[in-house]
Amino acid sequence: MRSFQSLDEREILALAVALEEEDAHIYDEFADGLRERFPEHAEKFRQLRRQEDAHRHRLLELYRARFGEHIPLIRREDVRGFVQRQPVWRMRPLRLKSAQKQAEVMELETIRFYEAAGRQTTDAGIRQLLGDLTEEERRHAEWAGEIAKTDLTGGEEAQEKRLFALQIIQPGLSGLMDGSVSTLAPLFAAALATHRSWPTFLVGLAASLGAGISMGFAEALSDDGTLTGRGHPWKRGFICGLMTALGGLGHTMPYLIDNVRTATAIAVAVVCVELGIISWVRHRFMDTPLSSAILQVGLGGFLVFLVGILIGAS
Q1: Does pTM surpass 0.70?
Q2: Residues 4, 80: contact at Cβ < 8 Å?
Q3: Cα dist from 229 to 20, 49, 64, 159, 223, whole Å
Q4: CA 20 – CA 61 distance, rounded (Å)
Q5: Could you state, in order of their start, the residue ranges of all structural domains in the chain?
Q6: CB–CB of 237/216 below 8 Å?
Q7: What fold does the segment set 4-147 form as a domain?
Q8: Distance between CA 194 and CA 206 in Å, rounded?
Q9: 280: which residues sit within 8 A by CB, 6+ positions away?
């Protein structure tokens, strides 16, 4: 995977073309998913799609003038630093708020891309076009925020909420999920295998701290925040690693109790609370239906818990 800083002007333009094509396709999917229940909003997404197509045409014209007809195939997944998007087909049936929130994040990321690309290029014509597109994408971001009239849209307060979700909630939630779920198997396997609290506590402590360090470094190295707006990588890494460790330590601490059965009962209760918190956070900040969040998180936790029981009892 290439870093954004390693791209030359030809590759930057090629990537910009691919980004505009993808955004136009997503807006078309949004329009199709909303056309029956929200026809007026669907038409606004169609207008956004047409404007993204116009951006693509302007980029293609400049590319041909500078570099000829052949365009290298460079996509967002080939360059480090882009937010991983949820496929639209996984969002069906599409909700208006979900489409609106993703559209705002898309436009924010595109603005950051054009700003970074403009700073990196030295060609006057390319820099001018990228600057013009930056300003047009700013208007798109405002328009996307007005598509659904909710408390989450419009104004500086809404942007702060979105940045808070990107920079704090997402890495924290990722860490909490990993720490709460991944440490279940070794912890309960140790409890069933040893029937002693202290060795089980040591296993849980090691698993929690080890997972915290691993997840912290993985998050910090995932991207530098230049294009995504997700903030400083080491800040995200610290948040992710801390929440991972806390997620594991929550159901490890009960094993400081000498009676292993009592400790296990309390640990199971703590796990249920942790999974409930994770489900609520996914519902509150990730726009996941509460029933789906509970099912997804609960199923994952149950499967890992079952693995621990099977291994510990063998």
Answers
A1: no
A2: yes
A3: 19, 23, 31, 11, 10
A4: 14
A5: 4-147, 155-313
A6: yes
A7: Ferritin (1.20.1260)
A8: 16
A9: 290, 293
